[in-house]
Write a structure and sequence with these properties.
Blueprint (H helix, E strand, L loop, with lengths): L6 E4 L4 H9 L5 E4 L19 E4 L6 H6 L1 H16 L5 E6 L22 H13 L4 E5 L2 E2 L6 H11 L2 E5 L3 E2 L2 E2 H11 L5 E4 L6 E2 H11 L5 E5 L1 H4 L24 H12 L2
Parallel strand pairs: 1-2, 1-3, 3-4, 4-5, 5-10, 6-9, 7-12
Antiparallel strand pairs: 8-11
Helix pairs in contact: 1-6, 3-4
The structure holds NADP nicotinamide-adenine-dinucleotide phosphate.
């Protein structure tokens, strides 16, 4: 796709937003944070026409969505509808949490979703709100160099403590936003529709934490616990590895390579 009129990025203050701003820095980019446009509201007047809208703004507080599903829907479903109304080709980001996790091999695009959480339900509705003519990118377990994410939390805890308790009965593919952003550029050359785009490989959160401590040379043990022991409000799928069954789908590097790239970026 030629980007003569530029790219609009919602959620520009988020972790994927930051990576997309970098990936598309050679283009004209209209970067919108929540203070520029609360996407739960209709678009502000005067937005320029662009070639594509990369819609990353979302209610991403998975546990918080359980107690305020309407608030989450206003941002995730209403927000996606509003961005689609701009009329530009749309890339909308969705999640592995649209699946119930009963499968024991990677989920592909033709698998039936069945979200367990309010967040997952809003993101599934958001996919429909994006419309048939959008690229819908399902990805998983995102982390990057900004914001609050698992890698940054583990780096902090690993420096403060001898041991951390981490869930070992949920399996997925931790995905580095820098690698995902590069894949988004590839996707713009591919047909629209649903695409699964996650890091190669899979692990549990506990295995991911161990890898973080190993790569960052932090002397911290991981105590493996169950999700039931952690007792978070929102249920999460026990297994949510994503793979694409579509020809020519972008392939991301292994999650461990993504972790190293992120740690390099963080100087850890
Ligand atoms: N994080 C993950 O593990 C994960 C996994 C799979 C899919 N995804 C999806 O990937 C996309 C990007 O996620 P991310 O990890 O980059 O999330 P993030 O770091 O939480 O960023 C989301 C951004 O959206 C903004 N936002 C929230 N409500 C808004 C509103 N009403 N209007 C405008 N902006 C609003 C947030 O602003 P504030 O900072 O001001 O709240 C934040 O900058 C989302 O669609 C998410 O659902 C994420």
């Amino acid at each position: 796709m030629e980007l003569t009129r530029g790219v609009l990025v919602t959620g520009a203050g988020g972790q994927l937003g930051a990576a997309l701003l970098e990936e598309f820095r050679g283009e004209q980019v209209v970067a919108l944070t929540r203070s520029d446009w609360d996407v739960a509201l209709p678009p502000p007047a005067g937005l320029p026409e662009v070639d594509v809208a990369l819609h990353t703004a979302a209610w991403t507080d998975v546990d918080g969505a359980e107690s305020d599903p309407q608030g989450a829907a206003a941002v995730n479903v209403g927000g996606t509808q509003h961005v689609a109304e701009l009329g530009a080709p749309l890339v909308a980001f969705s999640t592995d949490y649209v699946f119930d996790g009963r499968k024991q091999e990677p989920y592909v695009e033709s698998d039936a979703p069945n979200p367990l959480s309010a967040y997952g339900r809003t993101k599934l509705q958001a996919e429909a709100a994006a419309g048939e003519d959008a690229w819908i990118v399902r990805t998983s377990w995102l982390y990057g160099w900004t914001g609050t994410n698992f890698v940054r939390t583990m780096l902090r805890l690993g420096a403060e403590r001898d041991e951390v308790a981490v869930v070992d009965d949920q399996r997925g593919s931790p995905t580095y936003v820098g690698h995902l952003a590069a894949a988004v550029r590839e996707l713009l050359e591919l047909p629209r529709g649903l695409w699964h785009v996650s890091a190669d490989g899979e692990c549990t959160w506990a295995e991911f934490a161990e890898a973080i401590f190993e790569e960052a040379a932090l002397d911290c043990r991981v105590r493996r616990i169950t999700a039931a022991e952690l007792g978070r409000p929102a249920p999460r799928p026990a297994y949510s590895v994503l793979r694409s069954e579509r020809p020519g789908a972008p392939r991301l590097p292994h999650w461990r390579e993504g972790l190293r790239a992120c740690l390099d970026r963080l100087g850890s």
